[in-house]
Input
Amino acid sequence: MKSCYTENHEKIRSKLADSERFLSGVEDSSRIFAMLGEPNRMKIILALMEGELCVYHICEITGAKQSATSQHLRKLKDNHIVKSRKEANQVLYSISDEHIYTIVKMALEHSKCL
Output
């Protein structure tokens, strides 16, 4: 195979190849995209982008069973995509931060270009 050379090749390779921070970012980003890539979790995220909800209302909106919804919420929470707070005898879920809104909005916008 013939090798090609560009000015940027060495600069990019040296910057990314040995960077522990870069490799950690790749793993974390991949985990986030895996969470967002599951359709039922995406439905939950889209519902929560409209506002804070309890499990019962998330199930009602998404059409999913309570047990499955709870499992998805646990995974989303473990991966810092959603957060929860307790109010009286209910647990209310919401999107963890603005980055999630941005990522999902960009993905939805991009899907219109396909």
